[in-house]
Write a structure and sequence with these properties.
Helices cover about 15% and strands about 25% of the residues. With about 80 residues, the protein is of the alpha+beta class. It has one domain. A four-stranded antiparallel sheet has the order 1-2-3-4, covered by helices on one side.
Length: about 80
């Protein structure tokens, strides 16, 4: 059974980010293939960078060139605190 990655990621953010005021979710309304949200995690006093990450890419397995790689990924990039 494939885990509910949305829930796994939400739980991870609750544990490591904590303050939901620091997170803005760009919620995809309608998609023909899979639901994809983008999260912007704002910088704070302990984190001098923004985080832009996906939630939903992992709902569909990828074809990987080697067995050692996971078929399920999300994307994450760290950006300077003033990237807007």
């Amino acid at each position: 059974m494939i885990p509910n990655y949305f829930e796994v990621i939400e739980n991870h953010l609750d544990k490591y980010i904590g303050n939901r005021d620091e997170i803005i979710v760009f919620d995809e309304i309608k998609s023909p293939d899979f639901h994809l949200d983008t999260y912007w995690i704002k910088p704070d006093i302990n984190r001098n960078y923004s985080i832009l990450m996906t939630n939903g890419v992992s709902s569909i397995p990828m074809e990987t060139p080697e067995r050692q790689f996971s078929k399920y990924i999300e994307l994450c990039v760290l950006l300077p605190p003033n990237w807007l």
